[in-house]
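thread: overnight batch results

M.L. [08:02]
morning all. the overnight job finished for the chain we discussed friday. pasting input first so we're all looking at the same thing
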Amino acid sequence: MVFLHQQNPSRKRPSASFVPLLLPSKTLKSSDDGVDAVEKMVSILAEGGCALVNPSGPLCPDHHKLRCHLSSHFASSSDDRSHFLLGFSFYIQSPQNLLRVIASSNGGSPVSIRNDSLVRHLLLVPSIQLDVQNMLLEKLPEYFDVPASLPLEEDVARLIINQFRWLDFIEDPNAFTDKLMQVLSICPLDLKKEIIGSLPEIIGDQNNKTVVDSLEQMLQEDSSVIVPVLDSFSNLNLDVQLQEQVITIGLSCIRAIDAEHMPYLLRFLLLSAAQTNIRRIISQIREQLKFVGISNSRGTECSKLKGKLVVDNKEASILDALRSSLWFKNILCQEILKELNCLENPRDHKVIDIWLLMLIHTNCNSMRKSIEKIFKKKIIEGCIQEVLLDQCICGKRELVQEYFPFFLSLSEYLLACKEQKAREFGIHIYSRLFEEFVDTYSRQELMVFLASKHAEELIPLSSHINGLLEYLEGFTMENLHMVYEVFCNMALSASSSTGSFRLSIANELLMIVRKQVNHPDLKYKKMGLIGVLKIVSCLADGVNKSWSSPFQKSNSEEALELLKISLESCKQFVLPLIFFYDELTTLLECRVLQPAIMEWIGKHVGDFESVFLSDLEAGQLLNKNTYVGLEGELWMNLDGEISPICLNILPLASSSSQSDSLQFLPAYFSLLSTFERVTNQGSLGGIDALLGCALHLPSPKYFTATGWKSLSGKQKQIICLSLYYAVNWIRELLNAFCTQVAGKFNCTSQATKEDIISKLLKRLTNLVFLESLLNHSIRMYPVSLPQLHLHIEHSVSLLLSQPNHIGHLEESEIRMKYVNTSSNKRKHGKISKASVQADAEGKNRQPTLFDVLRKAGKLVNQEVQNEVISRLSSIEKISESGDERSSISNEPEPIEISAVSQALEAQRFRFRPLLVHCFYILTFSKNHNSSSSDPAAELPMYLYLLHDLHYKLDYFTYLGKQLSSRSINSVGFTRMTVDEFLSNIRSLFPSLKSLLNSALGILKEGDETCQEHWKFQSAAAGNPDISNHVISKPSVSTMVFKEVLNGFSKMLNLHDVQRNESVLSDLLEAFQSIKTPDDVASYGQSFSCGAIESLYIGACSFVESVLDTACSLSFTLASESLFTLESAVTSVQKVFKKSEANSKSMQSKFSQILPALRQRVETSAHKLLKHNWNDENLENGWKNKGEIVQKILRIYLEYSESTSELVVELACSIFPQVSSQQNLGEDDLHGFTTLCSATFLPWYRVLFEVNLTILNKLVKEVHSEKSLPGVQPENVETHLIGMQKTVNVTVALVNMSRTCNRVTVHALAVKYGGKFIDSFLKAFDFLEVHFQAHDEAIILLVKELQKATRTIQTLCSEAKGSKQMAITSKIPATKRSLERFLFRVKALLHATSSHCTFWMGNLKHKDLAGQVVSSQVYIDDQNDIVDEDPEAAINEDETAAVASSDRETG
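M.L. [08:03]
and the structure it wrote out:
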C-alpha cells in the first residue's frame, strides 16, 4: 500500500537522499536490480558482522561494531547507502523476512538474554534512520487485519511499533511525527489505542505541539480513544501553554464521552490542576458533569413496588475517581469549598455539590467541622434543598450504602442545631434513609442511633412517642426489641431530668409491660416478656444511671422484681415459660448482669436436679415401678455402672400433674448450661454428668408388633411423647456440649475433649435411633406433639387456657377446638375449602421452609388455620393407613433409619433447634465412635446433621432476600447474621466433600446392607436391641449425596458468600477435582494457583466427574449433579457481574471461562437427555420424573449457543416423531431417551415456554431500537427471521393437539397459544413501520400464524361443548387475544394500503380431524350460536373471495 504524503521542507537533509519504496521505472529496469540490491545489502551487513543469510544463527553478535561500520560506510559512499535501502525494502516485502528483522532473539545463548532486533540497530544509524522509519510505517497497514488474540512475537504491527520505543535519538522528529500521525489516523481502534498510549515513549519530548493537535483531532472524530489520549497527555512533558490546551481538550470532552470513561477523565483533570486553572476545572466539572439525580421520587417509589433497584456501577466509579483525586491533592478540597461558598443562588447548586462535600468529609478529618458548617449555612439559606438530597439518596441504595455513616453523622449534627430549618432537614435525611433502606439492619441502625445519641432530646417528645406503645401489636418481634430499647434508653435518660417527664416515661413503660406479661393471650404475653428482658438488659448496662422508679429502687432491685413477676406469670402456661427461658438465655450470653440477678438465676436453675433427675445404684434403677401399666428401662447409659443419675422421662410423661415439666425441660436445661458456662469461664464441668446419664424410657419390648398391639391409646400416646422428649433432650445436650469442642471455649483439657467427642458421637447415634422410632410410632399412632420451641415471629393468637398438647383425638374434635379458639380473635376469618383440599393433596410431600414458617406464624393467621387443618387431616389419614397395615399383616414393619420422616417432618417446627456449632461434629474422626470400619454405618448420623444444615441454608437463601443479609433473626435456630453463620460452617467444607465421596463409593458397591456394623455401633451407644430396626445403605447414601450437592449449590449462590472472597475460595477449594491442572490448561489461559477462576473450574470439573459416575447409578443422582453444575455456573455469572466494577483483569478472565463453562452445562444436560436409562437406574420408571426432565430440558435449551435454532429443531423435526400414546423403545430415531409418552407433557410445556421467552426477548429488542435514530435493514431482516422461527414453533406445537387426545395437551395449546398471540401483538408497531419494505415476509408471518389460531379456535369450541374445565377456564383470555390479533391485522393491511385483500367471516365448525360438524349449537350453551372469534383471511389475489376453503364469505 502506498501512502500519499507531502515532503516536509523542515527535514535536516535533502529529500533527494531518500530513496522511495517504489522507484521510478527508469531507476528499476528489472527485478534483477532488486535482487542485486538485496545481495549488496547482505554483503554490507556481513561486513559489519551481521549474518543475515544464516537463518539459524544470530543476526548480530556485536551491535556496536555493526552501527559503527554502517555509519562510516554510508558516510563515504552515498551509492552504497541507496543500494542498501533499496535492498532492504525488497527484503522486507516477504512477511517472514520482515518478522525476522523486527523480532528480538537471544542470539543462541543458553542464557535467556533478550537482544534488540536488526531493525532496532538500523534505526540507531543516523544516515538511514528516517528512511527505515518510513519503510516500516508504510508496511504497517499491510498487517492491520490480524486476530486480536495473536501473541506479540507473531503480531507484526505491534512489533513494528515496538521498534520505535525509547530510541536513543530521532534524527528528524518533525518528519517522523508527521508520518506517524498519518498512519495513526487509519489504524484499527485497538492498535490506535496502543500507539497513542505509547507516543511519549516513541516521540519523546520533541514536537509535542503536533502530537497534541493530532490527538485533539482524533478525539473529535472518535471519543472512544479518550483513555489512551489522556494517558499520553499525562506522560508528555508539556509546557504551560500546551498543558492549558490539553486541559481545555479534557473539559470539552465531559459531555461527549461515554460514562464508563468519565472516571479516567475526571482523575486526569483533577490531578492536572494547578493554582492557575483549578477554579476553572472545578467550575466546568460542576457545570457539565451529569451525575446522580436522574431518578425522581415517583420513579423510585415505582421501582420499590416492583422490587427492582438498578445500581449504576459507573456512578460508583465516578465517586471513586473523585475521592482518590481529592485524597492526593489537598488543594482541591480547599478550592471546592471556596467555589461552593461563592454560590448564593439555589439554582446554582447541583447534586454533585453534595457528593463533593461528602467526599471531602470522608477524606479530610480536619475539614469535617467546616463541611458541617457549610451544610448548615446552605440549608438555612435555602441553597441546598430537600430535592437535591432526594436525588442523592432515592433509588441509589447501594451507592449510598458505603457512605451511610456520613449521612447519619450529618443528620446528627443538623438535629443538634438550634435552627428549626436545619433540624427539619436532619429529620428529612432520616426519613429518606428509612424509606430507601428497607433491610432490617439499616433501619435498626437508624432507630438505635436515635435512641442512643438523642435519648435526652426525645424526652420532651415522649407524650407523642408514647403513642407507639398503643400500636405494639402490629410490630414484629424483632421490631419490638428495637422499640423497647428506644423507650428504655429514654427512661434511663429521663432519670437525670428534672422536668415533668422524669417519671412518666418509666411509669408508662412499666405499666405496658406488666399488663402485657399478665395477659392470657400468648401474643401479648410474649410482647411483655420481650419488654421485661429489654428493660433488664438496659438496666444491666446503665451503670451510671438509675431507673426512674417511683419507689426509689436500685437498678438490680427493679430488674429482679420484673423477672420474678414474669416468671410467676408464666408458671401456669408452658409456652410463655419456654419463651421466657429462651430469651433469658440469649440475654445471659450477650450481657453481663448484676450479681444479684445472677444469684437469682443460679437459685432458680438449681432446682433442675430435684425435678428431673433420679438417683441410680450401680447404674440401675432403685425401684422398677410401672407407669400407667408401662414398664420402664434405662436407655442410652453412656457412663455404665458409674452413672449416678438418670433423666425421669417416663415417670414425668405418665403423670398428668408433672407432664408439663417435660415440655419446658429443654429450654430450662439451655438456661442451666448457659449459666454454667458464664459463671465457670466457659466450662460445663459442673454438669458433665448429664451428657452421659441414662434416660428412663418405656421398655423396648413395646416396639414389637405384638407389644404395640397390646397397648391402649393412652399408653401409645405416652410412648410417643416419651420418645419426643428424649429426642429434644439429646438435641439440647448437643447444643450445650458442642461448645466445649468447637473451639468456642478453650477451657477443657485434651483428654476431657476426647471423652466429650466420643460421647457426642454416641448421642448423635442415639438421636438418629430415637427419631426413627418416633417417626415409626407416630405413623402407627398419630399424635400432635407439644411445642418445645416458640419461634421469634410466632404470630398465632392462642389462648393459654388451651391444653398444652393434643393426644389421639378425632379430626373433627381437633378442628372444632382450633376454630373456636381462633374465632375469638378473628370472627371474619373463612377457611377456604380449596386451600384445605390443596394442602391435603400435598400430605405426602416433605414440608418446605414455607410450611415451617407458616407453622411459626410467619404467614397470616388465615393461612395458619388452613395449614393446621390440612396437617390434622393428614394425621388422620396416616392413622387410617397405619391401622390398615396393622390389620393386613402381623409381621413387624421394618424401621428404616434412612426413611424420610414424613410424619415427623410435618411437626419438625415444634422441635428444639440445633445450633450452628453442632455441625462441628461433621469434622470428628470416625475412630472416636466405634471400631466400625464401615462408613455406611456412620452416614445416618451425618445425614441427620446435613438435613438440619439444609433447613438453615433454605432460611438464608429465601428469607435472606427479604430481610437484611447482615442482621437476620433466624426463625429456625438462633439470632445470627449470615456472616457469623458462614464463619461457623466454613471449616465444614472439606468434610462435606468427604461425605459425598463416601456416599458415592457406597452407591457403587451395590445394595448390600451393613446391618451388623450398625448394630455394633448402636449397641456401643447404648441403644436397645430392636429386631426390626434396620439401616438401608443405598437410601442413606443417596440422601447424603443429594444433601451435600444441594447444600453446595445453595452456599455458592448466597449473596454473602459471593461478596466474601475468602469464604468463596474455601468453599470452592474444598470441592476441587483431582484433574484441575489439565482442566485449567484446556481453557487456554493461565490462572494463578488459588485464583477464584481456577477454583471455579476445578469445582465444576469435580461436579462433572460426579455426574459421569452418577449416570451409571441413578437418573435422580445424575440430575442432581447437573443442577449443581448449573448452580455453580450461575454463581460464576453473578461473581462476574460483580467483578465488572472491581477488576478489569478478573473480568477478562471470567469472560474467558464463562462460555466454556456454559458449554459444559449444555453438554451435560444433553448427555442426560440422551443417556440410555434402564429400569435399574430409573427408580420406578419415568413416573414422577416429569418435573426433573422439565428442568433438565430447560437447562439444555437456555445454555445452548443458539436456543432458537434448537427449539425449532425439536419442535418441528424431532417432536413430530413422538407418538404421545405409545412408549418408545431404545432404538428411537430422535435419540432422546427422555422423550417418551410419560414425559411428553414436560417437553411440550418447556418448548412452549422457551419459545415464548425467545419472542419476548425479540419484542424487547425491537422496542429498544425504536429510540435509535435509524435501524439497519439487516437488523430488521434478522428480527423478522427470528419472529418467523417462533411462529413456526408455535404452529407446530399447537397443531400437535390435532393428533393428541390428551386434555392437558389441549389446555397447554390454548394457554400458551393465547400468550404467544399477546406477545406477538406487542411487535405490531414494528411490523407497521417496516411493512412497505418487508411486506412479503410480514404477510407470511401472519398467514403462518393463522394456522395455529384456527386450531386454537377449534380446541376452544370442542372444550366448551364437552365441558372440559381444564380448558374452558383459559378460553376467555385466549379469545380476547385472538380478536385483538384479528383487528390488528385488519388495521395493518388497511393503513399500509397493501395489495392484499382482507375478508373477515365466520369459520365453518370443524373438529380437530377437519370434519365439518353439522351444528354449533350445544344443548347446554344456547347463547354461543355465533363463534366468538372469526378469523382473518389474507390472500394476495384481489379477485379471490376467501383465503382458504374452510371459510364462508361474510
